[in-house]
Structure to design on (1223 residues):
């Protein structure tokens, strides 16, 4: 299979769909944008794709809580289709608002009998922030991150503070290798604000599910595809490509 | 059944912290934490719902159980001792409530109505003074919200009552002048006696009285906001300079100055003219590349932002985005720019005039309003500035601008008779009735209360949905013309679109938010997020289906005709029938007097302040509000969405230095870009508005050139914000500004392509009158031939040369040096109109040739501030050792050399091996090597006598610059 097909899910307020589609096209995938209403009407259309992406934005305005309404819709109308998708060794990616959606839909860390195990809530600064961060990657079995060690990409969110209900849940995620992306200092060490821009526990920036094939992350790899997007390019010169492109290339390679 | 869901945070209560801080700031106390002990948010729900239903809704949707806990009670039964609940006033846009109602429907729950609330708990009974302050100044804004103490009482949440049609006519044919004036005032029509008389005559000729709807339509169309009647009217202008008085008459000031300049430039360019559509559509359009044009518009939203800063800024940005979406056949917004003018945030609260919000609250609200709308729309906010002056206390200025991309071939629109009039987007409510006429009235202390109906909150997601479907409909060819609903609502949108044809509107077909609107309210409502399209009947089914597929409401309101009449009906009854010609061309011309007298100024160098050392002055200027870092604001804007960001608003080693301009590359797989910048300096206007305007244009162009923008392909925009132009002196300053715009625009070859004015920005109460300084915002949009050649302002590496470009003159009048040393007078910095364009061209050549490592323009604080900013942004030191030889600076003191704000100057960092090539490009132009970069993190500037005037650590300078607004 030369060119995997990527479905990019849109909802009212999605706004990184174009950028994400562009990133996938740069690495040879074909992309189709799907409005949630269209997919709700025909969930079986998921079968036409190898990769499903919930891109960034403000689905339903982040009303109630970021990603919550779209998450509820996904659980309600696409639950079976998405589980089938994942079980067929396909990939699901949620970026920023997409991470909030996947997490709150229970697709990354399923709820237990006491309720949701983790959430993404308001940044400790209390406000939305756009800034570049350094990420330390521990890829584990997450195909999106194969071979990656460090990434420099921007965050842009107000509700990216990853919090687990209990300490044991946080430890469990680390032990199972699901906490695949962490904010770090430029030297790779533990991060303090603003290196960790939102106060996330254990500096967690991205988490995958137990299979590794469902990844959610707050930072925006699709905003570091071109060398001119790097905030330091006028100092360091233009590199061949942006750091974020590797993640999309990995996703495509997974099917080749 | 009515239910109440109260949600409280587990652990930290950030909202409580916020309101307590606000209370402390306003009272100069630390009692906030004793006043508010906890906060909550919540929902009121109406519908056929059992307790289990509401619990299910909470678990699945409303509550994040990891960080919150919720309580469900029947409405009014919650434990609300010492609780104050803040609710939106009925009819105010509540996007969260709309979303919850929809999402509950998805879960199969019959939720009929939803209201959101915030709730604050006091530890006990509060003193009346604290309560008043909390309710009025901290917890709620009376313009849109109300506060309920104790339990809530309500038996329904539904709004509106059935409307019973009754045609209203306004008997004005027999009124005398006094009665005409009284009618205009009573109806908030903002029409002058002359205009009322013209309307009276028109209807006498018709042999009938107008309906209320017709009179409102005329008032909207003839308002200052919609017709710019002052600046397009006749002005008799008298100018006195050095005892010489001259007079001239302008038949149409804008046409004869700013528009005329653009025509001259286009003629000079001949076949190379790159303007496409100027001053005609909702935004100005210029060429970009082979496949795209680019359009830009900047609007103000000052009055609403003074009363409800969040909603005012929110809807200001929403409105200008719709302007771009309604330009040509529809522009795709690619970036925003936002410029604000405020009073200082530490203004003493006890000195606030009645009815005026504290500037700190205005700043927070405005920034949040722009942030929430721009970020949700997915449009990067890439450029802006903030200027502080206490004269903006009662009239803060909020400029919102949007740039859009239009495919070549989509730049024109044409309404055809027979096309359907289609409204797309939000439903119509009583929002903003009288927004257009209101924004042309002065603010009084009563404005806060009586104008509430003119203040709105936006719903960005509604507009995003509209944007998504409009761009698809455009590319599928489903409509023939488009415009936005702004001031005046349907009245203005349909009236403009059908001006050359005619239109018939069936008002009862407009989708409403709630029942009870009269036909006139439907017609003039300014509800947000609406566009009007003209749609060929055979395309309507496809458009309707497209809109439905993305949950966007679209409705046919009538059709365009070839009758030249605007005919309005409500359920078959005629409620309006106006001649389009009278509506658009019937307004009597205004004749205004204007005068300007040059203040007596000394041409001699102003004596420098001797009590402040150069280093102290530098630190003070870096820490002054208009100069200091605006990172607190910039970071809250998504400036990178759409992935076109090339030069970000913050730049340098640690991404925290001040960029001169932003650059975006909006077309995938293309390196052609756009630089967006602005210029504004009202302090110069106190000395001479002509120089102020020239300096603003120079600054906007200079900023764009500094990052790599092509000065030969730079379009500019004007936004005039002025005081009361009924005052001849005020209008005289405006005439002088417009003349400067004409002269400088032609000299620079930078055409104005769009503009806007906001007049009568004045506050009056019994004992106070505050007029804003004359304020002209110039926005520049420059083409960047190849973004890979762009440069930033941060110093890059040690061992490079620092080259100062441009003449340094004695231009300390209106400078920041004067501001921080408390001096006045002097000469404001006037650009050399012959030399400036040559300098811009040479700098552009040097940058595109790759000779320059860093480039920064010199503006507030002059050379000293520019070199300091470059150094601390790059983490690279600088030694300036040749201050004595600055071009043009003969006879100037060292202070003037350091802090003069002479325009058209740049500081370049050039590697040693490129110095010669660089100097060659500037042959015959002022350029001088003043020093070099060093590894040590410090700035040293030597005086002409060889002593160190400035010797400072970069960390100290940076801290001074970052500290003031690090909120």
């Amino acid at each position: 299979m030369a060119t995997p097909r990527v479905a990019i899910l849109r909802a009212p307020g999605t706004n990184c769909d174009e950028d994400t589609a562009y990133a996938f096209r740069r690495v040879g995938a074909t992309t189709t944008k799907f409005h949630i209403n269209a997919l709700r009407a025909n969930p079986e259309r998921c079968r036409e794709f190898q990769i499903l992406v919930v891109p960034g934005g403000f689905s339903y305005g982040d009303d109630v809580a970021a990603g919550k309404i779209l998450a509820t819709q996904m659980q309600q109308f696409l639950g079976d289709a998405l589980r089938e998708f994942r079980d067929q060794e396909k990939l699901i990616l949620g970026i920023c608002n997409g991470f909030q959606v996947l997490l709150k839909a229970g697709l990354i860390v399923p709820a237990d009998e006491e309720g949701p195990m983790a959430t993404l809530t308001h940044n400790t600064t209390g406000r939305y922030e756009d800034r570049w961060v350094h990420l330390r990657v521990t890829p584990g079995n997450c195909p999106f991150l194969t071979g990656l060690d460090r990434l420099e990409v921007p965050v842009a969110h107000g509700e990216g503070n990853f919090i687990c209900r209990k300490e044991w849940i946080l430890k469990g995620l680390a032990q199972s290798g699901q906490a695949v992306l962490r904010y770090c200092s430029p030297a790779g060490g533990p991060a303090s604000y603003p290196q960790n821009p939102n106060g996330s526990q254990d500096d967690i920036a991205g988490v995958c599910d137990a299979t590794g094939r469902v990844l959610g992350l707050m930072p925006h790899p699709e905003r570091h595809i071109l060398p001119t997007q790097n905030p330091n390019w006028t100092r360091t010169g233009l590199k061949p490509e942006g750091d974020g492109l590797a993640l999309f290339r990995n996703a495509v390679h997974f099917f080749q | 059944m009515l239910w109440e869901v109260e949600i409280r945070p587990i652990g930290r209560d950030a909202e409580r912290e916020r309101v307590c801080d606000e209370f402390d700031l306003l009272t100069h106390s630390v009692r906030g934490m004793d006043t508010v002990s906890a906060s909550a948010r919540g929902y009121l729900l109406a519908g056929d719902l059992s307790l289990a239903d509401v619990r299910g809704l909470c678990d699945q949707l409303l509550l994040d159980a990891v960080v919150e806990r919720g309580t469900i009670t029947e409405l009014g039964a919650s434990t609300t001792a010492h609780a104050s609940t803040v609710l939106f006033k009925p009819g105010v846009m509540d996007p969260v409530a709309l979303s919850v109602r929809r999402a509950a429907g998805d879960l199969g729950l019959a939720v009929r109505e939803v209201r959101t609330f915030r709730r604050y708990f006091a530890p006990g009974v509060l003193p009346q003074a604290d309560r008043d302050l909390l309710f009025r100044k901290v917890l709620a804004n009376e313009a849109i919200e109300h506060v309920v103490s104790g339990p809530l009482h309500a038996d329904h949440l539904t709004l509106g009552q059935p409307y019973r049609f009754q045609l209203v006519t306004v008997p004005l044919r027999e009124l005398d002048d006094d009665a005409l004036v009284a009618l205009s005032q009573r109806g908030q029509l903002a029409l002058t006696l002359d205009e009322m008389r013209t309307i009276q005559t028109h209807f006498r000729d018709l042999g009938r009285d107008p309906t209320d709807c017709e009179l409102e339509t005329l008032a909207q169309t003839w308002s200052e906001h919609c017709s710019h009647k002052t600046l397009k009217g006749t002005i008799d202008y008298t100018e006195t300079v050095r005892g010489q008085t001259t007079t001239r008459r302008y038949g149409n000031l804008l046409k004869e100055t700013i528009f005329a300049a653009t025509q001259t430039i286009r003629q000079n360019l001949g076949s190379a003219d790159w303007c496409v559509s100027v001053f005609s559509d909702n935004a100005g359009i210029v060429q970009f590349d082979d496949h795209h044009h680019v359009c830009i518009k900047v609007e103000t939203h000052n009055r609403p932002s003074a009363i409800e800063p969040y909603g005012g800024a929110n809807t200001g940005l929403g409105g200008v985005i719709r302007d771009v979406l309604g330009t040509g056949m529809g522009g795709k917004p690619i970036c925003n720019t936002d410029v604000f003018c405020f009073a200082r945030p530490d203004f003493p609260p006890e000195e606030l005039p009645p009815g005026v919000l504290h500037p700190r609250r205005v700043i927070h609200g405005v920034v949040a309003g722009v942030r929430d709308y721009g970020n949700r729309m997915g449009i990067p906010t890439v450029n802006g500035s903030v200027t502080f002056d206490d004269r903006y206390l009662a009239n803060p200025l909020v400029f919102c601008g949007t740039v859009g991309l239009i495919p070549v071939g989509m730049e024109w629109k044409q309404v055809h008779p027979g096309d359907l009039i289609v409204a797309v987007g939000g439903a119509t409510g009583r929002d903003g009735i009288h927004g257009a006429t209101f924004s042309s009235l002065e603010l009084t202390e009563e404005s806060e209360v009586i104008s509430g109906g003119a203040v709105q909150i936006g719903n960005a997601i509604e507009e995003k949905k509209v944007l998504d479907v409009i761009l698809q409909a455009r590319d599928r060819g489903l409509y023939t013309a488009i415009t936005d609903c702004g001031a005046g609502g349907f009245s203005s949108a349909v009236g403009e679109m059908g001006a050359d044809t005619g239109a018939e509107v069936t008002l009862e077909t407009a989708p409403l938010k709630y029942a009870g609107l009269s036909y006139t309210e439907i017609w003039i409502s300014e509800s947000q997020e609406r566009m009007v399209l003209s749609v060929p009947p055979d395309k309507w089914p496809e458009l309707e289906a497209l809109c439905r597929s993305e949950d966007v409401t679209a409705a046919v309101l009538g059709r365009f005709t070839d009758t030249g009449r605007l005919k309005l009906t409500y359920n078959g009854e005629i409620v309006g029938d106006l001649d389009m010609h009278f509506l658009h061309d019937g307004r009597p011309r205004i004749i205004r007097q204007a005068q300007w007298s040059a203040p007596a100024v000394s041409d001699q160098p102003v004596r420098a302040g001797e009590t402040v050392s150069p280093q102290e002055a530098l630190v003070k200027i870096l820490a002054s509000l208009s100069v200091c870092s605006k990172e607190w604001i910039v970071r809250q804007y998504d400036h990178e969405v759409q992935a076109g960001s090339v030069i970000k608003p913050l730049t340098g080693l640690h991404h925290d230095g001040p960029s001169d301009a932003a650059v975006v590359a909006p077309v995938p797989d293309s390196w052609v870009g756009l630089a967006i910048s602005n210029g504004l300096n009202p302090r110069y206007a106190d000395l001479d508005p002509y120089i102020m305007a020239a300096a603003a244009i120079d600054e906007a162009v200079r900023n764009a050139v500094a990052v790599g923008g092509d000065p030969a392909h730079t379009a500019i925009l004007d936004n005039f914000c002025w005081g009361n132009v009924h005052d001849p002196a005020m209008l005289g300053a405006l005439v002088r500004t417009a003349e400067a715009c004409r002269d400088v625009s032609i000299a620079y070859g930078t055409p104005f392509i769009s503009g806007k004015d906001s007049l009568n920005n004045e506050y009056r109460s019994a004992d106070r009158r505050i007029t804003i300084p004359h304020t002209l915002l110039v926005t520049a949009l420059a083409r960047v031939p190849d973004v890979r050649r762009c440069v930033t302002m941060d110093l890059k590496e040690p061992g490079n040369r620092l080259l100062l470009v441009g003449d340094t003159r004695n231009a300390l009048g209106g400078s920041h040096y004067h501001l921080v040393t408390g001096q006045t007078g002097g000469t404001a910095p006037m650009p050399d109109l012959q030399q400036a364009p040559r300098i811009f061209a040479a700098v552009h050549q040097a940058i595109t040739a790759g000779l320059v490592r860093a480039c920064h323009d010199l503006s507030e604080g002059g050379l000293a501030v520019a070199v300091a900013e470059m150094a601390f942004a790059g983490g690279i030191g600088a030694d300036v050792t040749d201050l004595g030889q600055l071009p043009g600076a003969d006879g100037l003191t060292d202070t003037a050399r350091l802090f003069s704000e002479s325009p058209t100057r740049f500081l370049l960092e050039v590697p040693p091996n490129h110095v010669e090539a660089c100097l060659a490009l500037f042959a015959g132009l002022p350029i001088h090597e003043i020093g070099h970069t060093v590894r040590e993190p410090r700035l040293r500037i030597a005086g002409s006598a060889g002593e160190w005037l400035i010797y400072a650590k970069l960390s100290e300078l940076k801290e001074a610059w970052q500290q003031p607004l690090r909120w």
Q: What stands out?
A: The two ends of chain B are 44 Å apart (CA to CA). The first helix of chain B runs from residue 14 to 27. The first strand of chain B starts at residue 2 and ends at 9. Confidence is low (pLDDT under 50) at residues 443-452 of chain B.
